[in-house]
Every structure is written in C-alpha cells, then in structure tokens.
Amino acid sequence: MSSTYLPAGLARRTDSLTSSAIRDLLSLTARDDVISLAGGLPATDLIPVDRIAAAAEAALRRPDAVQYCETSGHRTLRSVIAARESAVRGGVPVPVESVIVTHGSQQALTLLAQALIDPGAVVVVDEPAYTGALQVFSIAEASIESIPLTFTGMDTDELELRLTAGLRPAVVHTVANFHNPRGVTMSEQRRRHLAALADHYGFWVIEDDPYGEIWFGTTESGVDAPPAPIARHSDRVIRLSSASKILAPTLRVGWFVAPPSVCAAVELLKQGADLCGSSLTQSMTAEMLADSAWLDAHLTVLRREYACRATALIAALAAQFGDRLVVSRPAGGMFAWATFLDGTDTGQLLDAALEHGVAFVPGTAFASGAQYRHSLRLSYAGSTPPVLADAVQRLAAAHSAGSAA
Ligand code: PMP
Asked: What is the pLDDT of residues 257-288, one digit of tens each?
C-alpha cells in the first residue's frame, strides 16, 4: 500500500483536525454541580418557546414547510432577511438572490471557506479570534495571520501596514459587533477603512455578526445600536448572521448576504453538503422575524436582561478580585473578557475552578499562538444575577486555593 495512505485510512485533510477547546469544555461543564460561564449559549430561560411552538404549529400546516426547499433557502425567509438587511444598511436595496440560508452561521463559514480559500491561501483573523472560525480556516488549510483587536475593532492601520508590506489575504474575517470573545465593537471609521482596503487590495471580508441585535448601550459613550455594517461600504463584504442568539440555536438557521458569484458557488457546495436546510425551521424563523411587533418586544426583553446580567457579573468580579483583574465593560453581546494582572495562568485556574464548581474559557483557546495565558472569557448570558454572584465566589475560592498552593 502506498505510504501516502494514513495508517487509519483517513484523508490527509484530517491531519489538521483538532477539537474546539470550547466544545471539549462544554462536555466537562455539563455536570449539574458546575455553573458554566464557558459556553456561548444564549439564555435558555429567555428562549421564546411559546412563540416558537406557535410558529411550529402554523408551519406544520403549510405543505412547503414539510418538504425539501431550494438549496439557497426557504424563499419567504430569504425575502424577510433581505428586507431586514436592507433596513440595517440604511435602505440600500438587498436582492433576495443575494441571501443564502445555512445550517447556522457556522455552516456559512464552512461553505464560504470551501468557496473562497485554496490550501495555503492567507486568511486574516482578529486576535483574539472566534474559535469556530479558526477551526474552519485551519481545516481549509489556510495560512492564518492575526491582526490585533483594539477597543475600536480590528486594527485596520496595522492591517494596512501589513498589506503595504506584501500581505495578500484571500479573506479577512472579523466579528465587528460585540466581539466573541473580546466584546469590542468596530468603529464606523474602521469599518470604512476595512471596506476601502478590501476594494483596493481585492480581498473578501467576512463580517460575522451573530450578536449585532443584542445591544444594551452601557458604554461610556452611551452608544446603543452598533454602526452600520461594513457591508454598507463595499461589495467585497459577505455578511453573516444567525437566529441562534436572538431566537434559538436549535432552529439551526443562519444566513449570509453576498454578491452573485459567491452565492452561486456556495449554493453548489451546499447542494453537495445537505441538498437543503430544514424548510420547517426556516419557515418558522420567517414568521417570527416578520412579526416585528413581537420581535421588537422580545429583543427589548433580551437586551434588558443581558444588560442586567452583564452588570451583575462585572460588579461581582470587581468585588472579589479588585484591581488584580481587568474586566471589559460589555455594551452588548454575551461575553466579558478579563485579564489577571497577578500572573494567574487561567489554564491552571480552570482545573481548580472546575473542582470548585465553576467553568470559563481560558484565553489561550482564542489564540492562534500561545497568547492570553492570563485572560479568560466569561459568558454572563446564561445565568441570573444571583447565580453569577455564586459563580464568581467559586472562582475567587479557586483562585485563592491556587495562590495558596
Ligand atoms: N460566529 C460567531 C462569532 C459565533 O460566536 C458563533 C456561535 N457562537 C457562530 C458564528 C455560529 O453560530 P450559529 O452556527 O449558531 O449561527
């Protein structure tokens, strides 16, 4: 047998497969005695199950909701998304044909990587980066380059310097709103700058935006909704979003808006991947997203509750750790990012934390190299303020136990 065959009979591409640290952690934290601030799960108690049940009941009576649908997605949902996208872009028309519905936005990332990235092609990511994107780009055998985040999003000045020095990315991926894990939002100026660089150098921008609707405006500047999307400023931007964080992850409905050539390529890849998504959950999602009076009221509740949870977490961390821990001030999304100034290694702290019944994600999970050993991501979304206070007390006990050892 040729030596090109792997002993286990697996394809070479599987060599680069590593499990997401966060997925691994999620299985550890499924224990009842652990309060998990680790996963990027939206609050289960705020998932609108009654509205979802009503949408399911109505959808099941429609023949089109129980059949295969077009690969590009259920047409009604695509029109609803196109109209919402147009509104977010200040009224710029968004044709239905430019919307493709996927199995969560994670599938959009996978299919876009297949469509846009040849092995060895350069992909630029935020530093720190969304782990799910790192996983997809490494499976695509991309050469991953990181550009640091600033408090106003990806450092586009640094990106420009690297481009001037010869860096030629096929794709730049960024989470511009309420970054996962860092929490920051890209400024209007940087959005325009990134779009201009994409036009000039001819790369694609993947604007990955599952959190943009969850704004609650507790920033110093008092800003509420984030600035207009990067996609408003260039046709080289592919904008991804999802129903996971605003309705429910179980719907597995995500989407992207892109120019025709990208949509056509992804549609063919998706035909091969799954023929089509679920007409049932896409039809239900269409109904819920189109019910604007209900959706606005639901989003208001989500924003108010997440603001309350974020404030409770930050206050508890400040009370327990004082100035040994620098904590971000989330203005939206689901995460706080914290960095120990006392040399604590958060990978080691995690072991003690699990023993004390609390989980978080160590900063190294978001690094392409060995950075962020002293940082951690904490999700406030899934726990009420008293539970968050309990979780932080457990974390402080784990930290003291580690310092005493
Ligand atoms: N992008 C980002 C930045 C995320 O944080 C997530 C989920 N945590 C996703 C994409 C994928 O979400 P989904 O597939 O549920 O839409």
From this structure: 999 999 999 999 999 999 999 999 999 999 99
* Ligand 1 contact via 244 beta carbon (within 6 Å): yes
For residue 348 the two structure tokens come to 């080691």
Sheet containing strand 325-327, edge to edge, reads 325-327, 335-340, 375-379, 361-362
Cα(203)–Cα(237) distance, integer angstroms: 9
pTM of the shown model: 0.94
Where b means 16+ CB within 10 Å and e means fewer, 245-255 reads: bbbbbebbbbb
> Domain range for residue 210?
50-290
CB atoms inside a 10 Å sphere around CB 388: 25
Pocket test for ligand 1, best of 106, 173, 177 (most atoms within 8 A of CB): 106
The ligand 1 atom nearest the CA atom of 106: 14
**Is the beta carbon of 285 within 6 A of some atom in ligand 1?**
no
What is the CATH number for 378? 3.90.1150.10
210 ligand 1 Cβ < 6 A: yes
Taking the CA atoms of residue 348, residue 309, residue 42 and residue 38 in that order, the dihedral angle to the nearest 10 degrees is: 0
Choose one of 273, 290, 307: the last residue of a domain: 290
